[in-house]
Write a structure and sequence with these properties.
The complex is a heterodimer of chains A (112) and B (113). With 112 residues, chain A is mainly beta. Chain A is built from no helices and 11 strands. In chain A, a hairpin with a 3-residue loop joins strand 7 and strand 8 (70-75). Chain A is globular and about 45 Å long. Chain B is mainly β. In chain B, 0% of the residues lie in helices and 55% in strands. In chain B, the strands form 2 sheets. In chain B, strands 2, 4, 5, 6, 9, 10 and 11 form a 7-stranded mixed sheet that branches. Chain B has a 4-stranded antiparallel sheet with strand order 1-3-8-7, with no helix packed on it. Chain B is globular and about 40 Å long. Classes of the chains: A mainly beta (112), B mainly beta (113). At the A-B interface, strand 4, strand 5 and strand 10 of A face strand 5 and strand 10 of B.
């Protein structure tokens, strides 16, 4: 059965303090791993898609990496506006070509 | 583009009443997904459509839930009768092509009292 877990559940950082969020997954055939950002009261906003181990994507202070079992979202010198819940999701090309499974998310708070 | 538009933004209803949630997808996006989000269970896929055809409704919790997509511009999710455990935020999302990220609407916060 496909599974996605995320850690930590919540993370509190000082402004400028870099860190990483983890997304661990179990799928029989990875179609893609997706990162989203969700602000309170809003729908998730798409950030990145990663397709294969070793791949990296960057956007401003965010950098996503992928291995065969997990993905990391690295946040470099975060600012208060980076505070949000970060969700990862995986698609399985063998069982569910169109849909994805979301992890529970990591709630990030960046303190000025 | 106005993005994915959901209505209403908030809905408070009494147990036993019928509730209809609405979604206007992005023009040209072939996939439409209905999700439910709660603190306990996170984001759960309820049903999704491809070119207006329901593909997978295995996530619909029970017969009280139904969804339709009569055309490419409109979809509804109906709960009849509603129960307090249906209280959640319901999201509609669309996707333009395989492996592209989803575009989510702002959601409908449903409270059943």
């Amino acid at each position: 059965e496909d599974q996605v877990t995320q850690s930590p559940e919540a993370l509190r950082l000082q402004e400028g303090e870099s860190s990483s969020l983890n997304c661990s997954y179990t799928v029989s055939g990875l179609r893609g791993l997706f990162w989203y950002r969700q602000d309170p009261g809003k729908g998730p906003e798409f950030l990145f898609t990663l397709y294969s181990a070793g791949e990296e994507k960057e956007k401003e202070r965010l950098k996503a990496t992928l291995t065969k079992k997990e993905s990391f979202l690295h946040i470099t010198a975060p600012k208060p506006e980076d505070s949000a819940t970060y969700l990862c999701a995986v698609g399985n090309r063998k069982t569910s070509y169109d849909k994805v499974i979301f992890g529970p998310g990591t709630s990030l708070s960046v303190i000025p | 583009d106005a993005g994915v538009i959901q209505s209403p933004r908030h809905e408070v209803t009494e147990m036993g009443q019928e509730v209809t949630l609405r979604c206007k997808p992005i023009s040209g996006h072939d996939y439409l997904f209905w999700y439910r989000q709660t603190m306990m269970r996170g984001l759960e896929l309820l049903i999704y459509f491809n070119n207006n055809v329901p593909i997978d409704d295995s996530g619909m919790p029970e017969d009280r839930f139904s969804a339709k997509m009569p055309n490419a511009s409109f979809s509804t999710l109906k709960i009849q009768p509603s129960e307090p455990r249906d209280s959640a935020v319901y999201f509609c999302a669309t996707q333009g092509a395989e492996n592209y990220g989803y575009t989510f609407g702002s959601g409908t916060r449903l409270t059943v009292v």
